[in-house]
C-alpha cells in the first residue's frame, strides 16, 4: 500500500494505513517493538542453550538462537498472531485487513526479520519493510 500526500498531513505513524493515532489498533511504536524483540531473543537463547548446545558468549552453535527465533516467529505469528514478546508488551501481527497473518505471511515476515536489514528500513507510516513485503502490520492491542 502506498501512502499519498494527504497522509503526511495527518501527522502520526499509521495515518496513511488508516490506523488510529493511539490505543488499540494503532501502529506499534519503536519502544515496545524493541522490548518485544529483546524478550523473544532472550527466550530463544535460553531454548537454544538448553536444547541445541548454544553457549552464551561462547563459540559454536552461534546460529542456534536465530534458528529458534525464526521458528518461534513462523509458528506463533502464523497461528496466534504474536510471539511471546509481542504478547507481553501488547502487540499483534495481522494482515492490513485485520485478518490473521497466516502461515505464508508469517514465513515471509520471519525470513525478512532474520535478515535484519528489512526491519530497520521503514516507510513514512512507520511500517518496517519486512511487514510491508509480507502484507502485515504490527498493531497495539492495548
- Count of DSSP E strands? 2
Uncertain segments of ≥5 residues (pLDDT<50)? 1-8
Helix percentage range: 40-55%
Please trace the helix and strand order, writing H or E for each element. Answer: HHHHEHHHE
Quick synopsis:
By secondary structure, the protein is mostly helical. The chain has helices at 5-10, 30-51, 64-79, 84-89, 102-115, 117-120, 129-134; strands at residues 91-95, 136-140.
Record the SSE blueprint.
Elements: H1 5-10, H2 30-51, H3 64-79, H4 84-89, E1 91-95, H5 102-115, H6 117-120, H7 129-134, E2 136-140
Antiparallel strand pairs: 1-2
Structure description:
This protein is 52% helix and 7% strand. It is mainly alpha-helical. It has a two-stranded antiparallel sheet. Helix 2 packs across helix 3 and helix 3 packs antiparallel against helix 5. The longest helix is centred in the N-terminal third of the chain and has 22 residues, at 30-51. Mean pLDDT is 91; it is low at 1-8.
Features:
142 residues; mainly alpha; two-stranded antiparallel ribbon; 2 strands; 52% helix; elongated; disordered N terminus
Amino acid at each position: 500500500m502506498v501512502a499519498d500526500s494527504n497522509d503526511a498531513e495527518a501527522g502520526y505513524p499509521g495515518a496513511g494505513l488508516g490506523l488510529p493515532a493511539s490505543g488499540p489498533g494503532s501502529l506499534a511504536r519503536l519502544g515496545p517493538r524493541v522490548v518485544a524483540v529483546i524478550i523473544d531473543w532472550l527466550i530463544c537463547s535460553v531454548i537454544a542453550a538448553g536444547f541445541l548446545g548454544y553457549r552464551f558468549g561462547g563459540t559454536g552453535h552461534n546460529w542456534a538462537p536465530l534458528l529458534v527465533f525464526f521458528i518461534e516467529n513462523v509458528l506463533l505469528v502464523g497461528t496466534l498472531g504474536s510471539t511471546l514478546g509481542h504478547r507481553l508488551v501488547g502487540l499483534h501481527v495481522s494482515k492490513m485487513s485485520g485478518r490473521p497473518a497466516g502461515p505464508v505471511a508469517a514465513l515471509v515476515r520471519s525470513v525478512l526479520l532474520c535478515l535484519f536489514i528489512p526491519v530497520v528500513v521503514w516507510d513514512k507510516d512507520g511500517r518496517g519493510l519486512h511487514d510491508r513485503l509480507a502484507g502485515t502490520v504490527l498493531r497495539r492491542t492495548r
